[in-house]
Amino acid sequence: MKGIDPALLGLSVLFIICMLALGAAWVWLWTRRIAKYIQTVDAVIDAAIQGRGPVTNYEETALSSMEHKLLRYISVSKANEQTIQIEKNKIKTLISDISHQAKTPLSNIIVYSQLLEELPGLDEEARHYVKDIKVQSDKLDWLIQSLIKLSRLETGMISLQIEAKPLLQTITKALSQVYVLAESKQIEIRIDCTAQLTARHDAKWTSEALFNLLENAVKYTKPTGSIQITAESNEMFTRVDISDTGIGIGKEELPHIFKRFYRGQQAREAEGVGIGLFLAREIITAQGGHIKVTSESGKGTVFSLFFP
């Protein structure tokens, strides 16, 4: 270190120490300012969410502007929520009114058609008309009930009770509603699902979705055909497959089958209104799951349900 003035070296070291101290002080001050700013922003957001008044001074221009905009946004959001709730209540009342007003006359028509059908001495042509009235009345009743269920789902009027429950119970409940029709067509139905297998789902509404899929399978499977129901689970999801040996679905129709009121060319020959698959998908989607379909015309169909 020869040739270096000790005094100059001391001054250099002192200068470096001072600069480091000033830098540390500057960083400390800015850290405090940022922390205070974050705390103020946090207080502004909390106050705005809870509906309290402004917490900043008008001198804090940037924060005051942000707080004012945030309060306006929350106010508009709350007003929109109230409007949506009012509309939901109106729809709920309308659906209840439609259900009530349509149920009684429709039930009367069905009862009267049954009474007419039992009348002695009724000629064959009249009996045929009476049977048609009953069939169309049943069809209309099913359509109204399906539309009511769908409206309740779409407007959020139904609160799904999603919890881990045995799938076999849900499947058998749906199956019980189509068993008589399947038996009349001599369709064999097999179930591969253990009693211990559980999935997070709403049992009532999932049973409704499964019923719609099973009804389609029975309806479009020829006599002496078969339907296979398979359920399995892994770490990612629980899967339920419903496969049949029915008429199948053409490749060009597959993208459309879940549309409301859509009926394929072959499906038009059977009774139906084209809302069952749409309703089934809405129910499964509302639970965070999804449905996919694989099919080929003349070779049967497989509907796969996935539960998270």
Automatic annotation (TrEMBL):
<dbReference type="Pfam" id="PF02518">
    <property type="entry name" value="HATPase_c"/>
</dbReference>
<keyword id="KW-0418">Kinase</keyword>
<dbReference type="GO" id="GO:0000155">
    <property type="term" value="F:phosphorelay sensor kinase activity"/>
</dbReference>
<feature type="transmembrane region" description="Helical">
    <location>
        <begin position="6"/>
        <end position="29"/>
    </location>
</feature>
<dbReference type="GO" id="GO:0004721">
    <property type="term" value="F:phosphoprotein phosphatase activity"/>
</dbReference>
<keyword id="KW-0812">Transmembrane</keyword>
<keyword id="KW-0597">Phosphoprotein</keyword>
<dbReference type="InterPro" id="IPR036890">
    <property type="entry name" value="HATPase_C_sf"/>
</dbReference>
<dbReference type="InterPro" id="IPR036097">
    <property type="entry name" value="HisK_dim/P_sf"/>
</dbReference>
<keyword id="KW-0472">Membrane</keyword>
<dbReference type="GO" id="GO:0005886">
    <property type="term" value="C:plasma membrane"/>
</dbReference>
<dbReference type="GO" id="GO:0005524">
    <property type="term" value="F:ATP binding"/>
</dbReference>
<protein>
    <recommendedName>
        <fullName>histidine kinase</fullName>
        <ecNumber>2.7.13.3</ecNumber>
    </recommendedName>
</protein>
<keyword id="KW-0902">Two-component regulatory system</keyword>
<dbReference type="InterPro" id="IPR050351">
    <property type="entry name" value="BphY/WalK/GraS-like"/>
</dbReference>
<dbReference type="InterPro" id="IPR003594">
    <property type="entry name" value="HATPase_dom"/>
</dbReference>
<keyword id="KW-0808">Transferase</keyword>
<keyword id="KW-0547">Nucleotide-binding</keyword>
<dbReference type="InterPro" id="IPR003661">
    <property type="entry name" value="HisK_dim/P_dom"/>
</dbReference>
<keyword id="KW-1133">Transmembrane helix</keyword>
<feature type="domain" description="Histidine kinase">
    <location>
        <begin position="97"/>
        <end position="308"/>
    </location>
</feature>
<dbReference type="InterPro" id="IPR005467">
    <property type="entry name" value="His_kinase_dom"/>
</dbReference>
<dbReference type="Pfam" id="PF00512">
    <property type="entry name" value="HisKA"/>
</dbReference>
<dbReference type="GO" id="GO:0016036">
    <property type="term" value="P:cellular response to phosphate starvation"/>
</dbReference>
<keyword id="KW-0067">ATP-binding</keyword>
<dbReference type="InterPro" id="IPR004358">
    <property type="entry name" value="Sig_transdc_His_kin-like_C"/>
</dbReference>
